[in-house]
């Protein structure tokens, strides 16, 4: 059954309406914080800003607390309201997406930790151009995925899936280039390994943003598109 935006806004119980709306708002607020964490971690790395990196690490506790609160509220909704159909899909989707947001926060914290190491070493190493580019791409993916969640926008969610494929390609290209550089000049191996870890975290953030977009499609269309090709996704999502 395909859901509409109106389906998520009208229920027999007004209290149910309010509970679901509250959790949805909490989820989007957490998303905003996580997006900021990623942006600040990247800035801390590129600008060798140890203080900003430290603030990202400290804010991770707030992200974790928000995840726990959302999970608790969702469990209460399941226990007290026993949702069905599109409402149940929204609860399930937010629960899964909540985990992905927390993991994005974890990856941002990893980048912040590496940023502090880089600031101690001084000079910005090769690979920062790729880091900036892929970082900007995954930040946009997070923003677009959250916007799709807020608007129940399936087309925008599908665009996030496409963007993730591009990030994966650019990550592989950047990794090969940096591996070649390390072989040609072993003096920079230690620094390049840190850059490779940063790029790996960014690639994982892109994967989690893709997961958020998949949950939007699940909420609206009722289609589980995990591990499904683009052609098959288009067939499942846009032919209905």
Automatic annotation (TrEMBL):
Its main location: cytoplasm. It comes from the Bacteria. This is Phosphate-specific transport system accessory protein PhoU. Homodimer. Belongs to the PhoU family. Residues 29-114, 132-216 form the PhoU domain. Pfam families: PhoU (PF01895). Keywords: Cytoplasm, Phosphate transport, Transport. GO terms for biological process: intracellular phosphate ion homeostasis; negative regulation of phosphate metabolic process; phosphate ion transport. It is found in: Cytoplasm. The gene is phoU. Plays a role in the regulation of phosphate uptake. GO terms for cellular component: cytoplasm.
């Amino acid at each position: 059954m395909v859901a509409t935006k109106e389906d998520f806004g009208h229920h027999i119980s007004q209290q149910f309406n309010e509970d679901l709306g509250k959790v949805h708002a909490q989820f989007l607020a957490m998303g905003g914080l996580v997006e900021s964490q990623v942006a600040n971690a990247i800035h801390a790395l590129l600008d060798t800003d140890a203080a900003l990196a430290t603030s990202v690490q400290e804010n991770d506790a707030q992200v974790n607390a928000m995840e726990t609160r959302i999970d608790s509220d969702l469990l209460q909704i399941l226990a007290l309201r026993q949702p069905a159909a599109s409402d149940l899909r929204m609860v399930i989707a937010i629960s899964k997406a909540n985990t992905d947001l927390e993991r994005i926060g974890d990856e941002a914290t990893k980048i912040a930790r590496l940023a502090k190491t880089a600031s101690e070493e001084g000079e910005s190493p090769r690979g920062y151009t790729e880091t900036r580019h892929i970082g900007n791409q995954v930040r946009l993916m997070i923003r677009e995925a959250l916007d799709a969640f807020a608007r129940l926008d399936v087309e925008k969610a599908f665009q996030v899936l496409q963007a993730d494929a591009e990030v994966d390609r650019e990550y592989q290209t950047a990794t090969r280039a940096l591996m070649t550089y390390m072989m040609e000049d072993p003096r920079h191996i230690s620094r390049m390994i840190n850059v490779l870890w940063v790029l790996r975290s960014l690639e994982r953030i892109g994967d989690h943003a893709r997961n958020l977009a998949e949950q939007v499609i699940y909420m609206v269309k009722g289609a589980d598109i995990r591990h499904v090709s683009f052609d098959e996704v288009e067939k499942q999502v846009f032919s209905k």
